[in-house]
Write the structure tokens for this entry.
Amino acid sequence: MTLTCDNCSANCCKYVALEIDKPKVKKDWDNIFWYLHHENVVVFIDQDNDWILEFRTPCKHLLENKKCGIYNNRPLLCRTHSQKDCEFHSSEKPYKYEFHSVEDLKEYLQKKMIQYQFGEFKK
């Protein structure tokens, strides 16, 4: 079967994702809480247990027909994106855990019995 971008939802053009260090100390968890206080930001743990920070913001060159407006001059990252790893063509979720909010992360930390809280801040 040949994979194509025909009828694609163009999800790969609607976010920027960066790997972050796996949180180990309270300050790391606090940073993730900070990320999640922002709109259109998601943190997830992928199938390889990597921690990913995702900004849900579309590429400014994505056309209404979900095609690339700079296809012939698109960045290397776009050129090397593998369709076999594409969410559109995959039956497997790209993540094990996904956090859309501070509450999502707190629930995960409580289930894992991870102490993430600092003491109360006093002036």
The mean pLDDT is 89. The beta strands are 16-20, 41-46, 51-55, 95-99. The longest helix spans residues 26-36.
